[in-house]
Amino acid sequence: MQSTLDKSNIHSEELEALLKEREEGNVDFLLVDVREDMEYKMGHIKGVDLLLPTSSFGQWAQKFAEENKDKTVIFTCRTGNRSGQVQHIFKQHGLDRMINHAGGIVSYRGEIEK
Q1: Nearest to 23 by CA among 47, 56, 45
Q2: Backbone torsions φ then ψ of 43, nearest 5 degrees
Q3: For every one of its 114 residues, what pLDDT tens digit does the chain have, with 9 covering 90 and above?
Q4: What whole-number distance in Å separates Cα of residue 45 and Cα of residue 16?
Q5: Is 20 within 8 Å of 11 (Cβ atoms)?
Q6: Which of 35, 34, 33, 91 is nearest to 65 (CA)?
Q7: Other CB atoms within 10 Å distance of the CB of residue 12
């Protein structure tokens, strides 16, 4: 399963498997939802660690990068577009362990919380 965390993009089936592996203590990563608060409240992937809206990226990006530079981080959003943009910016600044959830929550078939 660790090889999945070496990718730039993962799909929903892989994310669902990774969340189960994390519950069992086999992998460690941070799952960050970059949608807006209203979207998050309508439903989010069970296991999201942080909500960091893209609209306030400038306010949280630098501190987040400093605090998580050595961690594996998976970004998710509605379709994978915003999370991909966030991931790309961090990768441009040398944070190589940032992963995009391609397809986003609309393609996710695992457990959703409201």
Answers
A1: 47
A2: 155, 135
A3: 457 888 899 999 999 999 999 999 999 999 999 999 999 999 999 999 999 999 999 999 999 999 999 999 999 999 999 999 999 999 999 999 999 999 999 999 999 999
A4: 9
A5: no
A6: 91
A7: 20
Give the H/E segment covering residue 98. strand 98-101
Q: Are 110 and 19 in contact (CB under 8 A)?
A: yes
The model carries a pTM of 0.95
Q: Cβ(30)–Cβ(49) under 8 Å?
A: yes
Which tokens go with 15? Answer: 């994310």
Q: Is 54 helix (H, G, I), strand (E, B) or coil?
A: helix
Q: Topology of 2-113 in CATH?
A: Oxidized Rhodanese; domain 1 (3.40.250)
Q: Which amino acid is at 67?
A: E
Are 72 and 30 contacting, i.e. CB atoms less than 8 angstroms apart?
A: yes
Check residue 4 and report its DSSP letter: G
Residue with tokens 């594996």: 72
